[in-house]
Amino acid sequence: MEGPPPLRLPDEAAFGAFRAECEAEQGWLSRYRREGMAVWGKPPRAEDPAVHRVKGRIHMPDVPAETAYDVLHDTEYRKKWDLNVLETHEIARLSDNADVGYYAWKCPKPLKNRDVVTLRSWRVLDKSYMIINFSVKHPKYPPRKDLVRAVSLLTGYLVQSTGPNSCSLTYLAQVDPKGSLPKWVVNKASQYLAPKLMKKLHKACLKYTSWKQEHHADTKPWLYPEQNQLPYMAISDLSLQHASSLENIDESSLMEARDEKGDTSGSEN
Question: pTM of this prediction?
Answer without folding.
Answer: 0.86
